Amino acid sequence: MFYFLCFFYVFIFFLLNSFTCNVVVWWVVFLMMTLVFISINKGSVSSMVNYFMIQEILGFTFLLVSVSWVQLVILLMKVGVAPFHFWVFSVTNGLSGWSVMWFLTMQKLPFIPVIMYLSVSYFVYLVVLGIIFCYFQLFFVKGYKNMLVLASTESFSWLVLMIFFSLSSGLLFGLFYIIFFYFLLDHSGSSELDSYNWETVFIFMNIPFAMTFFVKFFSLISLFSSYTFLLLLVLFVMFLSVFSLGFWLCNMSTDFNFNIFKNRSYWYWFCYPLMFLCLI
């Protein structure tokens, strides 16, 4: 019953931000969302304190600044949109199961109308830069849970990009994404152990015909009209990822001799990065 009440509050806050252009009202909604997060995660003191400190500092700065693009950057930091997601792991490391799902989905929902209101033309390039940054960061992230959080952050950036071009389509896919996220994490996460596995991580990265795959696919369709070169570049990378995915899975399913990378440096610098293109 408590979680249904939180869902109701989030829905009300989303509608309030959608029909209001007052900075003070936005700030009050952000504060209420912080209180909702704290009430849900009372058992995780470190995550609760880290989230509260970050949100309140950024929220106070958002209230004082009157420049729209600065407010947009601050808001992207509050939500954790790439490349401003540096603080996300300090919060998710203390969360598990349902709390992870809430933080990565419902907690961000009331911020979307404000992001759309403050967005400008170069906002698209900033989001694409954040997506590329997530791809590179995947090389350095350890642990299934952190990889899942990073992949979800990247997928949310695609969702924001889609909403920028079509609000109704983006919100529809956002709804399906939340439902998909809930059912997947409900069986993949445990409150006692970080039990996320490779299958879960792959689904959130870009396994064909998974939910995030369609989010990215329709986001690319939205880019057709205005950003042709950028679209072709992304499609080229996705084309390479198909081959790299098959290459990587075949090697992981057999007794692959990784010493070949040590003996042939040119093979290492060519094939090894292509193997990791399946993360894109």
What is the count of β-strands?
Answer: 0
Low-confidence stretches: 187-194, 264-268
The assigned structural class equals mainly alpha
Biggest beta-sheet profile: none
What's this, in brief?
The chain is mostly helical. Helix content is 73%, strand content 0%. The longest helix has 25 residues, at 228-252.
Commentary on this structure:
- It is a single chain.
- By secondary structure, the chain is mainly alpha-helical.
- It has 15 helices and no strands.
- The longest helix has 25 residues, at 228-252.
- 35% of the residues are buried.
Entry keywords:
single chain; about 280 residues; mainly alpha; globular; NADH dehydrogenase subunit 2; membrane; transmembrane
Which helices and strands, and how do they pair?
Blueprint: H1 2-18, H2 23-40, H3 45-64, H4 68-79, H5 88-92, H6 98-104, H7 112-118, H8 123-137, H9 144-165, H10 167-188, H11 198-205, H12 211-222, H13 228-252, H14 260-263, H15 265-275
Helix pairs in contact: 1-2, 2-3, 3-4, 8-9, 9-10, 9-11, 9-12
